[in-house]
Design a protein that fits this description.
Layout: H1 15-30, E1 35-37, H2 66-70, H3 83-94, E2 98-103, H4 134-151, E3 155-158, H5 171-188, E4 193-196, H6 200-203, H7 205-208, H8 234-251, H9 292-302, H10 317-322, H11 325-340, H12 342-345, E5 349-351, E6 361-367, E7 370-377, E8 383-388, E9 400-407, E10 413-414, E11 422-423, E12 427-432, E13 436-444, E14 453-455, E15 460-464, E16 467-471, E17 475-476, E18 480-486, E19 495-498, E20 501-503, E21 506-508, E22 511-517, E23 539-546, H13 549-561, E24 582-587, E25 597-600, E26 603-605, E27 608-611, H14 619-622, E28 623-629, E29 638-645, E30 653-659, E31 665-666
Parallel strand pairs: 1-2, 2-3, 3-4, 16-19
Antiparallel strand pairs: 5-6, 6-7, 7-13, 8-12, 9-10, 9-11, 9-13, 14-18, 15-16, 17-31, 18-22, 19-20, 21-22, 23-29, 24-28, 24-30, 25-26, 25-29, 27-28
Helix pairs in contact: 4-5, 8-9, 9-11
C-alpha cells in the first residue's frame, strides 16, 4: 500500500518521480508482494484542480485516469491505455506485480441524470451518485470489469463510498446496491483483489463475504485516526491497534479468518508541524527498524490470508540501500510460511484477550494435536502469557507435547517446570520480554525420549557415563535461566557440566534441573529502572543504575548498520535514529496534562512529548507519553535518577524504561551457577 508512504506526493510524469516510484515497485517485489495499490500523481493525465471528491484525491483514481472516466473522456471499453501508463503497468508486471486501482464509487458521475437526481444542483464533495439505483450499479460494474480487461489491473481498493444518504433511495437499497456490486464483480472477475476502506468496517461481514474485507484498524490507518498504544515505536503501535481490531472483528462480528484484514508496518505522517497536509516530498524516510518484525508477526497471526504491507524503505535512497539481505529474507520467509501452513491457519482464533496494558495476548491455530501459538506482550513490563493446553486454544487430541519456539530463537523448547514435557490440560505460563512477540509450535511428543532432551535454551546435551554435559548453551547476558533435561528412563547422572563449567543440578525422576547464570550485567530490551507498583499514585521515584559499555557499543553498531542521515525534523519521530538511548516514562492512558520531571545525577533532564503523529495532531489519540534523549553517560559508572510525577490513579504509572536496546546473548557462565 504505497499510499502509506505518501506516494501521492510523487509525480510519475517526471523522470525523477518515476525513478522514485520504481524503487517502491522494486522493493515491494523483493519483499514478496504480488500486488501494489498504484496511487501516484500523474500530471500528464489528471490535475488537483479537477478533483470533485470531498477529500481531494480524485486525481489518483484508476491509475490517474479517474477524472477522465468520470467526465466520459476515457472509456475503458473504447479507448486504449495511454502509452506511458501502459509502460508503468508493464514495469510492474515485469517485477511480478499487478497494480490495484484506487476507486471512489461516490462521485458525481453524470452519464445518467437518474444517478444524481437526489442531490439536485449540489453535486461534488460528498454529494454524489446513489448506489441504490440499479442503472448505476450496472454501469459501474461494467466500467470496473472493462478496466480490468483493458489494463490487466489486479483489482480495486474501494474508498469514499457513501451508503447512508437521507434523500436518496432507502438506506437499505444503498447498502444492497453496494453488496450487489461487490458480489457481481467477484462473480465476473473472481481472481481480483478487492480491498475495502472507509465505512467498510460498518457494512458488516455479510458484505465483506462478497470478496472484500474491512478496514484493518476499524478506522483510517493514518496515525492520528486511532488511539495509540503508549509505545515509542510506531510499527508496534500500529500492530497493537491491528490486533485489537482483529479481536473485535472476530469475537464481536464473527468475521472468518479468510477475510480478516492484515496490516503490517504503518502509515507515515503526511501533515507537518503547522498542520498543513503536504503534497510535496515530505517524510520519505520513516522505516521503523526495531518495530517492523513485531508488526509483521502481529498481522500474520491475526490475518494470515491478507498480507497488507504498508510503509517499506523505498522512497528514500539511503533507506532503500540500507535494508539488508537478511531482513528481506526474513520478511519473505514469513510470507512463505503462511502459504505453507494455509490449511492450518484457517483455524486461527484469538486466545487470552485483546491487547491491553498489564496483559499479554495472542492467537492460536491448531488442528487436533498440532498447531501454532502467536503470543504478544505489548507492554514494556516483562509479563507472562497464560493459557491451557486444551480445547480453549483449539487443542482436541494428544497426550504429551513439546512447545517448540519458532521465533525469536527457533528451536528452543519451553519445558513444563520440573518435567519438561507437557500434558493435555496443563496450564502454561510463558514469560515474554518487553514489547516482544513469541511464536511457538505445539507438537506431539513420543515418550519416553531415547536420548536427553534440553528445555529452556538452545544448545547440545549428552549423557557421557555419569556426566550430563551441556554445551553451546546461550542465554541473555546477566540473566538466570532454568534448564531442564529430560533423561532416558532410569538414567541417573552424578554430575553436570555446562559450557565446560561444573554446575550443580537437581534430579527428580527422569528430569535434571540446572539454574544457568549467564555472565555480565543485565540490560536488555525495555530495561526497567522502576519496579511496577499497582498502588503507586504519584510522587517521586528514585533509584540508581549502571549502563554497561556494551550498550553504547550496540547503539554505535545500530548507526553503522543503518547509515541513514536523519535530519533534526526526522528525529522528532521516536522510532527513527535507533543509535539514540531513550528513556520512556510509560503511563497508562497518557495525557498531555500530566507533568513529569526527571533528574539524572542531580541535573534536570528535558522530557520530550512523543506522538504517534510526530507533530502532535489529535493529541488525545496520538500522545504516547514523555521521554528523555539520554545524554552521554559514563559506561560502567553508577548514576542516580529521580522522577517526579503528579497525582495519578493507582496503577497508571507503568515504569521508566530504556528504549532502543536489544537483547544480547552469551555462552559464558558465572562460577556460582547452580
Amino acid at each position: 500500500m504505497p499510499w502509506c508512504e505518501n506516494d501521492y506526493q510523487i509525480d510519475v510524469a517526471t523522470p525523477a518521480g518515476w525513478a522514485e516510484y520504481r524503487r517502491i515497485i522494486d522493493r515491494a517485489a523483493e519483499l514478496g508482494c504480488q500486488y501494489t495499490l498504484f496511487t501516484p500523481a500523474n500530471a500528464r493525465w489528471s490535475s488537483l484542480d479537477e478533483n470533485r471528491d470531498a477529500w481531494g484525491w480524485e486525481n489518483l483514481l484508476f491509475f490517474a485516469l479517474g477524472q477522465k472516466i468520470r467526465e466520459g473522456e476515457w472509456v475503458p471499453s473504447r479507448d486504449a491505455v495511454p502509452a506511458d501508463i501502459k509502460d508503468m503497468i508493464d514495469y510492474g508486471r515485469g517485477r511480478g506485480l499487478k497494480y490495484l486501482a484506487y476507486v471512489y464509487p461516490s462521485l458525481p458521475f453524470l452519464q445518467n441524470p437518474e444517478w444524481t437526481r437526489w442531490a439536485g444542483d449540489k453535486l461534488g464533495g460528498y454529494n454524489a451518485v446513489d448506489t441504490g439505483v440499479r442503472s448505476f450499479q450496472d454501469w459501474w460494474l461494467g466500467t470496473l470489469v472493462d478496466f480490468i480487461r483493458k489494463t490487466g489491473a489486479g483489482g480495486f481498493s474501494f474508498d469514499h463510498w457513501w451508503i447512508g444518504y437521507d434523500k436518496a433511495s432507502s438506506k437499505y437499497a444503498q447498502w444492497y446496491g453496494c453488496r450487489r456490486i461487490l458480489e457481481e464483480l467477484r462473480r465476473r472477475v473472481p481472481d481480483i483483489v478487492m480491498d475495502g476502506r472507509q465505512q467498510y468496517m460498518n457494512f458488516g461481514p455479510w458484505t465483506w463475504l462478497a470478496g472484500s474485507y474491512p478496514h484493518p484498524t476499524t478506522t483510517d490507518e493514518q496515525p492520528e485516526s486511532f488511539t495509540a498504544f503508549p509505545d515509542l515505536h510506531t510499527d508496534r503501535v500500529s500492530a497493537d491497534r491491528q490486533r485489537f481490531s482483529a479481536w473485535k472483528y472476530r469475537i464481536e462480528r464473527f468475521a472468518p479468518p479468510e477475510i480478516m484484514p492484515g496490516f503490517m508496518t504503518h502509515q507515515t505522517e503526511r501533515t507537518d508541524g503547522a498542520g498543513v497536509m503536504r503534497r510535496d516530498r515530505f517524510r520519505p524516510r520513516d522505516w521503523d527498524r526495531l518495530g517492523w518484525r513485531y508488526s509483521v508477526l502481529s498481522s500474520l497471526a491475526t490475518a494470515p490470508f491478507n498480507h497488507t504491507v504498508s510503509f517499506i524503505p523505498a522512497r528514500d535512497e539511503e533507506e532503500f540501500r540500507a535494508l539488508s539481505e537478511a531482513d528481506k529474507t526474513w520478511f519473505r520467509g514469513w510470507l512463505d510460511w503462511t502459504d505453507a501452513h494455509a490449511a492450518l491457519l484457517k483455524r486461527v482464533k484469538p486466545i487470552i484477550g485483546p491487547p491491553m496494558l498489564g496483559r499479554c495476548d495472542g492467537t492460536a491455530a491448531i488442528d487436533g494435536d498440532h498447531g501454532f501459538l502467536f503470543l504478544f506482550n505489548p507492554n514494556y513490563r516483562v509479563l507472562a502469557a497464560s493459557f491451557k493446553l486444551d480445547a480453549s486454544i483449539g487443542l482436541t487430541g494428544g497426550d504429551a507435547f513439546l512447545l517448540k519456539e519458532i521465533h525469536p530463537q527457533a528451536g528452543t523448547l519451553h519445558g513444563k517446570p520440573g518435567q519438561g514435557y507437557w500434558r493435555f490440560g496443563d496450564a502454561v505460563s510463558l514469560t515474554l520480554g518487553a514489547t516482544s512477540a513469541l511464536v511457538v509450535e505445539i507438537v506431539p511428543a513420543p515418550l519416553p525420549a531415547p536420548t536427553p532432551v534440553l528445555f529452556g535454551a538452545l544448545g547440545h546435551v549428552f549423557l557421557k557415563g555419569e556426566t550430563l554435559e551441556l554445551s553451546g548453551v546461550r542465554g541473555e547476558i546477566g540473566t538466570e535461566r532454568t534448564l531442564l533435561v529430560a533423561l532416558p528412563h532410569g538414567a541417573r547422572p552424578a554430575k553436570a557440566v555446562l559450557n565446560g563449567r561444573p554446575v550443580r543440578m537437581a534430579l527428580e525422576k527422569d528430569v535434571a534441573t540446572i539454574i544457568a547464570d549467564f555472565a555480565g550485567q543485565a540490560f536488555g530490551r525495555g530495561h526497567s529502572l522502576a519496579a511496577y507498583d499497582p498502588a503507586f499514585a504519584g510522587g517521586t521515584v528514585k533509584g540508581r543504575f549502571v549502563i554497561p559499555a556494551r550498550v553504547f557499543e550496540q547503539l554505535r553498531k545500530n548507526k553503522d548498520s543503518w547509515p541513514v542521515a536523519y535530519t533534526e525534523d526526522d528525529l522528532k519521530a521516536t522510532w527513527l535514529g535507533i543509535h539514540r538511548l531513550l528513556l520512556f516514562v510509560q503511563i497508562a492512558e497518557p495525557d498531555e496534562a500530566v507533568r513529569a520531571a526527571l533528574k539524572i545525577d542531580g541535573t534536570p533532564v528535558a522530557l520530550i512529548k512523543a506522538y504517534n503523529s510526530i507533530y502532535g495532531h489529535e493529541p488525545k489519540r496520538t500522545f504516547l507519553g514523555v521521554y528523555a534523549d539520554v545524554p552521554r553517560l559514563d559506561a560502567g559508572r553508577e548514576h542516580a535518577f529521580e522522577l517526579t510525577l503528579p497525582a495519578l490513579a493507582p496503577g497508571r504509572f507503568q515504569g521508566l524504561f530504556f528504549e532502543n536496546v536489544e537483547p544480547e546473548f552469551t555462552a559464558e557462565i558465572r562460577t556460582e551457577s547452580r
